[in-house]
Amino acid sequence: MQKKIPRKIVNGVLLLDKPLGLSSNQALQKVKWLLKAKKAGHTGNLDPLATGVLPLCFGEATKFASYGLEANKTYLTTIQLGETRDTADAEGEVIERFPLPEMTQAKIEQVLSGFLGEQQQIPPMYSALKFQGKKLYELARAGQTIERPPRDITIFKLALVGFTKDSLSLEVSCSKGTYIRVLGEDLAKALGSGGYLSALRRTVSGSVAENELVSLQSLIDLHEAEGEEAVASLLKPTDYLIKHLATYTVNEVEASQLLNGQAIKLLDSSLTIGQNVRLYALDKSFLGLAQVQPSETSLMLQPVKIQSTA
Predict the structure, then answer these.
(1) Which of 219, 176, 171, 172 shows the shortest CA–CA distance to 56?
(2) What is the pLDDT of residues 57-83, one digit of tens each?
(3) 84 near 171, Cβ under 8 Å?
(4) What distance in Å separates the CA atoms of residue 144 and residue 125, rounded to the nearest whole number?
(5) What three-state secondary structure class fits 46?
């Protein structure tokens, strides 16, 4: 009988460079195994075809993973022109072939300018979104197509990196929920052809950039050489994904109240109603997240996500 590996309480954020060929969850499970961690989650799905920024949250840091999911993202992508595929990327089967468009920098940049700003986008069938408990890609593989409501998205930047007679490479900065595969198809159509993504790399997610990343292979090598403690030494603090938020320091009495779910009176007049604030004790230890809320006589800090004291 195989011996069960004991799991440990591991807290923090690991900034992974997701490798080609693995799903986000597969990459997460590999790192979770290396750390022997009890609890883990990632902060934004990347397809197996994609690489790049994938913050992984462990233990108490999973409480703040939503800030990674909500963050704006930046990608480098290449769109292959001349045909469409059922998955809208290189892994799919060819659906239809198209003539190649006449490619000039002026024409491409004119098309790109029309895709900037706020807009609606229909998610693809080959996605991890769910319908009646099943993932859409599971239904798509079974030959089913479900009507998907459009999503509000924003394209902040759409810059031409380079192009050939049958492809173009772009840098895209966008809001959460944007499917670059759908954008690639739409751009190819606007150019007068069909297209799919042949490459995709996430270079920025919120405040995390690719120069901070560690590769999965380097983690595996480190684990083999020095064990999980060496891998754990690469973890960022639990509050890493919310480091852009304002901070507020509390005394021992206030810390006890917050940790017990009680609101405290706010003494900082620079903070505004609805603002989320990082909480720290006098010893600089991170306590959690609170939100500024009004009361009859003053503003209060209402705990939202508090660190476990167990």
Answers:
(1) 219
(2) 999 999 999 988 899 999 999 999 999
(3) no
(4) 9
(5) coil
The string of pLDDT tens digits covering residues 180-226 is 999 999 999 999 999 999 999 999 999 999 999 999 999 999 999 99
Q: How confident is the model at residue 2 (pLDDT cuts 50, 70, 90)?
A: very low
Residues 134 and 171 placed together within one structural domain of the fold: yes
First-to-last C-alpha distance (Å) of the chain:
32
For residue 85, being part of any structural domain is answered with: yes
Q: What is the CATH number for 102?
A: 3.30.2350.10
| pLDDT for position 1 | 43
- Whether residue 266 contacts residue 300, with contact meaning beta carbons closer than 8 Å, is answered with yes
Q: How far is 308 from 310, CA to CA, in rounded Å?
A: 6
Q: Is residue 238 part of a domain?
A: no
- Are 143 and 129 in contact by the 8 Å Cβ rule? The answer is no
Distance CA 256, CA 263 (A): 10
80-137 pLDDT per residue, tens: 999 999 999 998 999 999 999 999 999 999 999 999 999 999 888 777 777 777 777 7
CA–CA gap between residue 21 and residue 307 (Å, rounded): 35
Same domain, 137 and 261: no
What is the biggest distance separating any 2 CA atoms in the chain, rounded to whole angstroms? 71
**Mind listing the pLDDT tens digit for each residue in 260-272?**
999 999 988 889 9
- Same structural domain, 112 and 158: yes
* Active site (annotated) includes residue 152: no
Residue 6 lies in a domain: no
Residue of 47, 89, 186, 239 marked catalytic: 47
Segments forming the whole domain that contains residue 196: 73-205
User: What is the Cβ-side half-sphere exposure of residue 222, based on CA atoms within 13 angstroms?
Assistant: 16
Give yes or no: residues 272 and 217 share one domain: no
Same domain? For 105 and 150 the reply is yes
Number of domains in the chain: 3
Does residue 284 form part of some domain?
Answer: yes
